[in-house]
Amino acid sequence: MGRGSHGCSVLGSSLLLLFCLGSAAAQKASTWKTLSGNPPAIIAKGGFSGLFPDSSDFAYGFVAAASSPDTALWCDVQLTKDGAGICLPDIRMDNCTNIANVYPKGKKTYSVNGVSTPGWFSVDYDSTGLSKVNCK
Protein backbone atom coordinates (compact mmCIF):
# COMPACT_ATOMS: atom_id res chain seq x y z
CA MET A 1 0.00 0.00 0.00
CA GLY A 2 1.27 3.40 -0.83
CA ARG A 3 1.30 6.56 1.11
CA GLY A 4 -1.75 7.90 -0.72
CA SER A 5 -4.01 4.97 0.19
CA HIS A 6 -3.19 5.43 3.89
CA GLY A 7 -4.25 9.08 3.65
CA CYS A 8 -7.48 8.06 1.92
CA SER A 9 -8.37 5.53 4.62
CA VAL A 10 -7.75 8.11 7.39
CA LEU A 11 -9.83 10.69 5.51
CA GLY A 12 -12.57 8.13 4.84
CA SER A 13 -12.64 7.02 8.48
CA SER A 14 -12.81 10.63 9.65
CA LEU A 15 -15.71 11.39 7.30
CA LEU A 16 -17.55 8.26 8.42
CA LEU A 17 -17.08 9.22 12.07
CA LEU A 18 -18.36 12.76 11.43
CA PHE A 19 -21.36 11.37 9.56
CA CYS A 20 -22.20 9.02 12.45
CA LEU A 21 -21.84 11.78 15.03
CA GLY A 22 -24.01 14.10 12.95
CA SER A 23 -26.69 11.45 12.59
CA ALA A 24 -26.69 10.75 16.33
CA ALA A 25 -26.96 14.45 17.17
CA ALA A 26 -29.81 14.93 14.69
CA GLN A 27 -31.94 12.24 16.33
CA LYS A 28 -34.66 13.46 18.66
CA ALA A 29 -33.83 13.03 22.34
CA SER A 30 -35.89 10.25 23.89
CA THR A 31 -38.74 11.25 26.15
CA TRP A 32 -39.26 9.94 29.64
CA LYS A 33 -41.19 6.69 29.81
CA THR A 34 -43.75 8.13 32.22
CA LEU A 35 -47.46 8.34 31.37
CA SER A 36 -47.16 12.07 30.64
CA GLY A 37 -43.69 11.98 29.05
CA ASN A 38 -42.44 14.37 31.74
CA PRO A 39 -39.47 13.61 33.99
CA PRO A 40 -40.46 11.38 36.91
CA ALA A 41 -41.42 13.08 40.16
CA ILE A 42 -38.96 12.56 42.99
CA ILE A 43 -40.70 12.26 46.33
CA ALA A 44 -38.52 11.79 49.38
CA LYS A 45 -40.77 10.19 52.01
CA GLY A 46 -38.98 10.54 55.30
CA GLY A 47 -36.00 12.20 53.65
CA PHE A 48 -32.85 10.20 52.89
CA SER A 49 -33.81 7.57 55.45
CA GLY A 50 -31.47 4.84 54.22
CA LEU A 51 -28.57 6.81 55.63
CA PHE A 52 -30.20 8.93 58.36
CA PRO A 53 -33.09 8.30 60.77
CA ASP A 54 -36.46 8.47 58.98
CA SER A 55 -38.05 11.94 59.11
CA SER A 56 -35.05 13.54 60.84
CA ASP A 57 -33.63 16.98 60.09
CA PHE A 58 -30.50 15.28 58.76
CA ALA A 59 -32.51 13.08 56.36
CA TYR A 60 -34.45 16.03 54.90
CA GLY A 61 -31.37 18.26 54.82
CA PHE A 62 -29.37 15.69 52.87
CA VAL A 63 -32.16 15.29 50.31
CA ALA A 64 -32.31 19.05 49.84
CA ALA A 65 -28.55 19.21 49.28
CA ALA A 66 -28.08 16.08 47.16
CA SER A 67 -31.23 15.83 45.04
CA SER A 68 -32.77 17.73 42.17
CA PRO A 69 -34.31 21.13 42.96
CA ASP A 70 -37.86 19.98 42.23
CA THR A 71 -37.82 17.10 44.72
CA ALA A 72 -40.89 16.98 46.95
CA LEU A 73 -40.40 16.21 50.64
CA TRP A 74 -43.15 14.15 52.23
CA CYS A 75 -43.59 13.43 55.91
CA ASP A 76 -46.22 11.90 58.14
CA VAL A 77 -47.36 14.76 60.36
CA GLN A 78 -48.15 14.15 64.02
CA LEU A 79 -49.59 16.97 66.14
CA THR A 80 -48.24 17.99 69.54
CA LYS A 81 -50.21 19.11 72.60
CA ASP A 82 -49.71 22.76 71.58
CA GLY A 83 -50.83 22.11 67.98
CA ALA A 84 -47.42 22.07 66.30
CA GLY A 85 -46.90 19.59 63.48
CA ILE A 86 -43.85 17.31 63.65
CA CYS A 87 -42.61 14.77 61.11
CA LEU A 88 -42.62 11.23 62.52
CA PRO A 89 -43.04 7.98 60.59
CA ASP A 90 -45.17 6.33 63.30
CA ILE A 91 -48.00 7.41 65.60
CA ARG A 92 -46.14 5.78 68.51
CA MET A 93 -43.11 7.92 69.27
CA ASP A 94 -41.30 5.06 71.03
CA ASN A 95 -41.09 3.24 67.66
CA CYS A 96 -38.95 5.96 66.08
CA THR A 97 -37.48 8.16 68.84
CA ASN A 98 -35.69 7.93 72.18
CA ILE A 99 -38.69 9.37 74.05
CA ALA A 100 -38.88 6.39 76.45
CA ASN A 101 -35.42 7.35 77.73
CA VAL A 102 -36.23 11.07 77.99
CA TYR A 103 -39.68 10.61 79.58
CA PRO A 104 -39.64 7.09 81.12
CA LYS A 105 -42.98 7.59 82.93
CA GLY A 106 -44.81 9.03 79.92
CA LYS A 107 -46.30 5.81 78.56
CA LYS A 108 -50.07 6.01 77.98
CA THR A 109 -52.70 3.92 76.25
CA TYR A 110 -55.03 5.23 73.55
CA SER A 111 -57.62 3.59 71.32
CA VAL A 112 -56.14 3.77 67.80
CA ASN A 113 -58.54 2.55 65.12
CA GLY A 114 -60.44 0.61 67.79
CA VAL A 115 -57.32 -1.10 69.16
CA SER A 116 -55.95 -0.37 72.63
CA THR A 117 -52.42 0.89 71.87
CA PRO A 118 -49.82 1.56 74.59
CA GLY A 119 -46.88 3.87 73.96
CA TRP A 120 -45.66 7.46 73.89
CA PHE A 121 -47.74 9.82 71.73
CA SER A 122 -46.99 13.31 70.42
CA VAL A 123 -50.34 14.71 71.65
CA ASP A 124 -49.12 14.30 75.25
CA TYR A 125 -46.15 16.67 74.82
CA ASP A 126 -45.69 20.26 73.70
CA SER A 127 -43.13 21.19 71.08
CA THR A 128 -40.72 22.59 73.70
CA GLY A 129 -40.72 19.31 75.64
CA LEU A 130 -40.11 17.34 72.44
CA SER A 131 -37.02 19.38 71.62
CA LYS A 132 -35.13 17.01 73.97
CA VAL A 133 -36.21 13.95 71.96
CA ASN A 134 -34.17 12.54 69.03
CA CYS A 135 -35.01 10.18 66.18
CA LYS A 136 -33.44 6.74 66.29
TrEMBL record:
<dbReference type="GO" id="GO:0006629">
    <property type="term" value="P:lipid metabolic process"/>
</dbReference>
<keyword id="KW-0319">Glycerol metabolism</keyword>
<dbReference type="InterPro" id="IPR030395">
    <property type="entry name" value="GP_PDE_dom"/>
</dbReference>
<dbReference type="InterPro" id="IPR017946">
    <property type="entry name" value="PLC-like_Pdiesterase_TIM-brl"/>
</dbReference>
<feature type="domain" description="GP-PDE">
    <location>
        <begin position="40"/>
        <end position="136"/>
    </location>
</feature>
<keyword id="KW-0732">Signal</keyword>
<keyword id="KW-0378">Hydrolase</keyword>
<feature type="signal peptide">
    <location>
        <begin position="1"/>
        <end position="26"/>
    </location>
</feature>
<protein>
    <recommendedName>
        <fullName>glycerophosphodiester phosphodiesterase</fullName>
        <ecNumber>3.1.4.46</ecNumber>
    </recommendedName>
</protein>
<dbReference type="GO" id="GO:0006071">
    <property type="term" value="P:glycerol metabolic process"/>
</dbReference>
<dbReference type="GO" id="GO:0008889">
    <property type="term" value="F:glycerophosphodiester phosphodiesterase activity"/>
</dbReference>
